[in-house]
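W.,

You were right to be curious about this one. When I first looked at the sequence I had no strong expectations either way, so I just let the prediction run and decided to look at it fresh. Below is the sequence, 360 residues in total, followed by the output.
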Amino acid sequence: MDERGDFNRNGGLTLVPMPGFEKQAEAVKTKVEEIGRREGKRRTFVDIVIPEFGERVTHAPYLRLGKDHIGGHDVVVIGGGPGNWTDLGQLNLLLAYIKGRRAVRIATILGCFPLARSDKDIGELEFAMPNYVVGQMLAATGGKLDRIVSTDLHADQIVMSAPMGFITPISLTRRVMAEAADWIAVRYPSSKVVLAFTDAGGIKRAKPSITRVEKDKFNGQSLPIVQGTKTRESSQKSQLDGLTGALSSVENAVVLMVDDEFTTGKTSNDTAEALTKDHGAKAIVVAVTHGPFSGNVVELLLDGGRFIDHIFSTDTIPFYNRPNLEPLFDRNLLTVVPWTDDMGWICFQHHGDESIRIVR
């Protein structure tokens, strides 16, 4: 029995944020404790431990992480992102330390699964990477890693890169679509709305969310759908080949373009241009789960050649520590849909060994 709360066989709950995710961890702590008080079935107190990463004068990396609130605790690492060299190295070193400090159980909430776009072999030179990512995480923890929670995976086969039930996929598509629908209703009242997807896979993944949003925001009305066809040359580059579907419905409509990720913005802007110039769309609103916003995306969206009117993105990749994106907020081009409430519920359920597969 913990003097601060009820007995839990997994020990106390500790959040360990990766660099850049500290504010999210604070918000998640607040939410978990709020849920515990409100529901009354399980008081839950949360500790936060901030790891200290650095480099020695030789550029050799180091990590400082003590045993306080780690040893004997149920530890959840909060992080994610497309997965650059630093992110991957820090994640695996952190997991190894947490295992070495004798955590009772280790889980990760990686809002954006690292290297998720490298979900299949590309030509003769690139292998699919998710299996490698999972293998490295398991190796770092000596097999003690219990679960990876991630949102809106780029491809269903990523789940198969790990043991059965190991990766728990969560969808935030409904959440971000609903926010965009509310925005459209205020700014374009009585306008018809058409959904657009960059490929058939996106429609398939979003189908449950489409049904729910149609019911909640459009009185059960089935929205026309336009689908893009594109050629993917690599995990970093693709181009729009054409559009199919309910193109006759686009004239004078607000198009809600839904995707899992907004990186350079080129494919989305090319699609928006075709819908506007060739088919008469009134406005283009983009709703995405992951917002890397990389490369020259700011210049693209501030340029006169922009055909996207507004973007909604969750903060699976946090925005508060990316000052280069401030011009997008200043120009009211980007709205962030926080998912910290969802993370709080996920952590609460996970700590109590209850289902987390459907966010509320």
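Here's what jumped out at me. Residues 264 and 296 are 6 Å apart (CA to CA). And, maybe more interesting for your project: The radius of gyration is 21 Å.

Coffee later to discuss?

I.
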